[in-house]
Amino acid sequence: AEAAFVPLNAGAEGTKLARDLVNMPPNDLYPASFAEKCRELGQYGVQVEVLGEAELAKLGMNSMLGVGQGSVKESQLGVMKWMGGAEGEDPVILIGKGVCFDTGGISLKPGPGMEDMRGDMGGAAAVTGAIRALAERKAKVNVIGLVGLVENMPDGDAIRPGDILKSAS
Fold first, then answer.
1. Relative to the CA of 4, which of 21, 28, 50, 158 has its CA 20 to 30 Å away?
2. Where would I find the Cytosol aminopeptidase domain in this sequence (predicted)?
3. pTM for the whole thing?
């Protein structure tokens, strides 16, 4: 009977991870610390790669870099792979938005509710939690999770309304 709870427990642990990420204060959860949470999934057999700004620029990820260019925190892309399915089987791709804190950049958002702007990384938290759940339960599926991790902050280098960026798409 206990074996029946293994997949349920894995799902619960993934959900708790996502919940905890969303509720972390922005001084504790920023692109590099979120990327470290992704790396911790290696203990479950997840292959994790984190790309920094230089690698993102080479890939033409200028829209993502534009959002983060006003922050002193380096933008990063977390790539998490759980390959529990058949070799050669196409993976499911999960993509999560990871704006760890969103002030609105130059177009500053109003003060009331600003403390809740850490929630713009909820998509990345959900993807990270899902990858953990699948890996912990040893799911027979190939999944790749991508989380773009940035902060949108006001600064002299922040993206401006009307700027034109060449993106990878």
1. 21
2. 17-168
3. 0.92
β-bridge partners, 142:
83
Enter the tokens of residue 140.
Answer: 């027979």
What tokens were used for 146?
């991508």
Locate 111 and state its tokens.
Answer: 């003060």
The whole-number pLDDT of residue 149 equals 98
Q: What one-character-per-residue DSSP string does 1-40 give? A: -GGGHHHHHHHHHHHHHHHHHHHS-TTT-SHHHHHHHHHG
Beta bridge partners of 133: none
Can you list the domains of the chain with their CATH numbers?
2-152 (3.40.630.10)
CA dihedral (66, 160, 118, 91) positive or negative: negative
Strand bridging mode 92-102 / 142-152? parallel
DSSP 123: H
Alpha helices, H only, 24-97: 31-39, 53-58, 62-68
Residues of the chain with pLDDT under 70: 1
Task: Please give the single-letter amino acid code of residue 41.
Answer: L
Q: Is 108 in contact with 101 (CB distance < 8 Å)?
A: no
